[in-house]
Amino acid sequence: MKKKISPYLQVMEYCLSFLKKLSDEEIAKIENGDLVIQFDLIEKKQNLKQKKDSITFSTTEIIDFLNTVGERDEAMKYLDSLFISRLSLEEILRKLDYPHTKKDNLEKLKQKIIEATIGFRLRSEAIQGKSDSSRSDFKDNI
């Protein structure tokens, strides 16, 4: 039967195993002050999923709102005000069935969401001549 290790000792064992993995170069840089060891607390992915589920807004609500917005700038302000994570933006793009890459930054993801909702609608209206009154004047002159 294994003895239960104190949480403090367990943390010290993690630190010790990290230090054992350092190369001679890295140890020399730490001694010179060129490198600093820094510990950050990061939650496990399963905890992140629980937090994601507790978000107050839903992707469908965001998509529905964006479909009612008339201008790209207004939509960008709305997305900026939500402080949405990259995962949420990617989820919105998946629901919109719009392609994206892992290299896309947050700004690019937001632009793609706007293009998939507002840009699509504005282009469609422009092609049909619904939103441009000068287009109807052009037809009258023909």
In short:
This protein is mainly alpha-helical and 142 residues long. The protein has 8 helices and no strands.
Question: Can you give a write-up of this model?
Answer:
This protein is mainly α. The chain has helices at 7-20, 24-32, 45-53, 59-68, 72-82, 86-95, 106-128, 133-141. α4 (59-68) crosses α6, α4 (59-68) packs across α7 (106-128) and α5 (72-82) packs antiparallel against α7. Residues 132-142 have low confidence and may be disordered.
Keywords for this entry:
2 domains, disordered C terminus, 142 residues, elongated, mainly alpha
**Mean pLDDT across residues:** 80
Order of helix and strand elements from N to C terminus: HHHHHHHH
The structure class reads: mainly alpha
How many helix segments? 8
Number of strands: 0
Strand content: under 5%
In helices, the fraction of residues equals 55-70%
Topology:
Elements lengths: L6 H14 L3 H9 L12 H9 L5 H10 L3 H11 L3 H10 L10 H23 L4 H9 L1
Helix pairs in contact: 4-6, 4-7, 5-7, 6-7
